[in-house]
UniProtKB/TrEMBL annotation:
It comes from Pseudomonas kielensis. It comes from the Bacteria. PANTHER family: PUTATIVE-RELATED, YKGJ FAMILY CYSTEINE CLUSTER PROTEIN. This is YkgJ family cysteine cluster protein.
Length: 249
């Protein structure tokens, strides 16, 4: 199957999308006056919450943290908080920071996760975007070498940044994760505190996790499975974060 793509400048991809950021991009975003949302998901050694085929990719971008009597693999995403129109989109749907826009914006419409195929119908782009322009995918393979390089840069940043992200979370008191596939915990930290925590961690990197983590889960049956694995579960109403469920209620 071949896929072509050409941006038509509709601006839909710049509306209501939280854009994943590298550590350096998150610091820049905060310095520019933008808000950063912290999204957290995790899984356990027994594979709960993670298809076996996805384990290697997930482990490489996770940090191992203590959780009850066991440990969890936690993935932390810093993302540009775009509730509505991106703050950098002008009245003509042009990006004001185009030359230094985040990696994920440069990579769009391709996916970063190797286990998620590019599906035009799942994107916000209008049909004409997929009816013109250069070929992106030929015979199921990405043919744009520069785009492939950017995707690898993004994946490598996930791996390189994860320890620092966990340290920043520790500074901010972020220690509750959702189970991968069940949902995300979402934090909107004060940006001054976020920037200060980032500066402290980057000035003096931490070695290893500094505190216990716990899981927030969507239901009691899933909580029982996580508890049986020795992990810690919270049943308290969240005060500092929101739980974004992926499973149907």
């Amino acid at each position: 199957m071949n896929t072509s793509f050409s941006c038509v400048g509709c601006g839909k991809c710049c509306n209501d999308h939280h854009v994943p950021l590298t550590l350096a991009e998150a610091r820049m975003w905060a310095a520019d006056g933008g808000a950063v949302i912290v999204l957290v998901e995790g899984f356990l050694d027994n594979g709960l919450g993670l298809p076996a085929a996805q384990r290697e990719h997930a482990q490489r971008r996770s940090v191992v943290v203590p959780c009850g009597d066991t440990h969890a693999y936690v993935t932390i995403t810093f993302a540009a908080f775009n509730a509505g129109r991106c703050r950098n989109l002008d009245e003509d749907n042009l990006c004001r920071i185009y030359e230094r826009r985040p990696l994920v914006c440069r990579i769009y419409p391709m996916e970063i996760n190797p286990h998620i195929p590019l599906t035009p119908s799942a994107k916000d782009c209008p049909p004409e975007s997929w009816q013109q322009g250069p070929e992106l995918i030929v015979g199921g393979q990405l043919v744009d070498r520069s785009l492939a390089s950017l995707i690898e840069q993004s994946r490598q940043a996930d791996r390189d940044d994860i320890q620092a992200k966990e340290g920043i979370c520790a500074q901010l008191g972020i220690c509750t994760t959702a189970l991968k596939g069940d949902g995300f915990t979402a934090y909107l930290p004060d940006m001054a505190a976020f920037a200060a925590a980032m500066d402290r961690v980057q000035a003096e990197p931490l070695s290893g996790s500094v505190g216990q983590w716990q899981f927030h889960l969507s239901g009691t049956a899933l909580a029982d499975q996580v508890l049986a694995a020795g992990a810690q579960v919270t049943t308290e109403q969240p005060l500092t974060y929101a739980f974004i469920a992926l499973q149907a209620a």
